[in-house]
Amino acid sequence: MTTGVSSGAPEGERIPNLKSGDPDYRAFVGPPSQYDIMGATQFSLLFSLGMRSNDRVLDIGCGSLRSGRLFIAYLDSGKYTGIEPNKWLVDDAIEKQIGKDVLSIKAPTFVYNDQFDVSGLGNFDFIVTQSIASHTGPDMTKLLLRSIDAALLPKGIAAVTFMHSRRVDNAAEGWFYPEGVRYRRETIDRWIHEVGLKGTPIAWFHPRQTWWLVVHEKTVIPPRVFRWLARGETLAMKRSWDPVERARGPANHVRASIGKALRRR
């Protein structure tokens, strides 16, 4: 969420620095120009992993329903739950995105706390927490993972984003926003195992972070070839009516991924 050019944005577009307390419910959760993309990528990922309308989905850090508006519309009544400390974000999204009628039609559940408290919510087939662990210190990150452990069904899948570091882990505690914090892959893996879960990074598209799948049972994790080929690259395509131009970049990624996956078999 720092200033820079994102691979998911049109070439040359600058991503603005965000300010805590930004009155725009879209800007508060990320670059407004990517509000649609960053919601679609979460929905597309869970659908690709097997989410169907009768599954229960927990959205930790649901914010202004960037992805929640898609989940709520798709899932059966009562199947969506969002946890968010900033109630005004949810209120604005209901008013400006999905309308109040959806509350009676789809009966989503919203819980407002900043401790990832999942007590009393039951268990979920899928959990998504996008751009949360990229802003939490070590203790809060471990608390998030323990909440996932408590809320995830035995054969459920959680999708979590992290910002990777090559050399040094963030050691500062607390919540950092809009600044991000980074952790080494081996540190993330160790924390996941310490709470009794299993996890692996995947290649699914994100302009600044890395998606991890976190599960109770290792057999639930998709095979390696899926983790390389399911990239969500269409979300990063430039707008163009030229199908060759639209497909060239993703096709190169797919070819490289196929080769890499086959070499590792």
Structure in words:
This protein is of the alpha/beta class. The chain has eight helices and eleven strands. The strands form three sheets. The protein has a seven-stranded mixed sheet with strand order 5-4-3-6-7-11-10, with helices on both faces. Strands 1-2 form a two-stranded antiparallel sheet. It is globular, with a radius of gyration of 18 Å. Residues about 1-20 have low confidence and may be disordered.
What's the structural blueprint in terms of helices and strands?
Elements: E1 4-5, E2 14-15, H1 35-48, E3 57-60, H2 68-74, E4 80-83, H3 87-98, H4 101-106, E5 109-111, E6 124-129, H5 138-151, E7 152-162, E8 164-165, E9 183-184, H6 185-194, E10 198-201, E11 210-215, H7 224-229, H8 243-264
Parallel strand pairs: 3-4, 3-6, 4-5, 6-7, 8-9
Antiparallel strand pairs: 1-2, 7-11, 10-11
Largest sheet: 7 strands, mixed
Rg calculated over all Cα atoms: 18 Å
* Arrangement of strands in the largest sheet: 5-4-3-6-7-11-10
Total of DSSP H or I helical runs spanning 4+ residues: 8
Shape: globular
Cα separation of the termini: 36 Å
- Give the low-confidence spans: 1-22
**Structural class by sheet pairing and helices:** alpha/beta
Average pLDDT metric = 82
Q: What proportion strand?
A: 15-25%
- How do the SSEs run, as a string of H and E? EEHEHEHHEEHEEEHEEHH
Number of strands: 11
Helix content: 25-40%
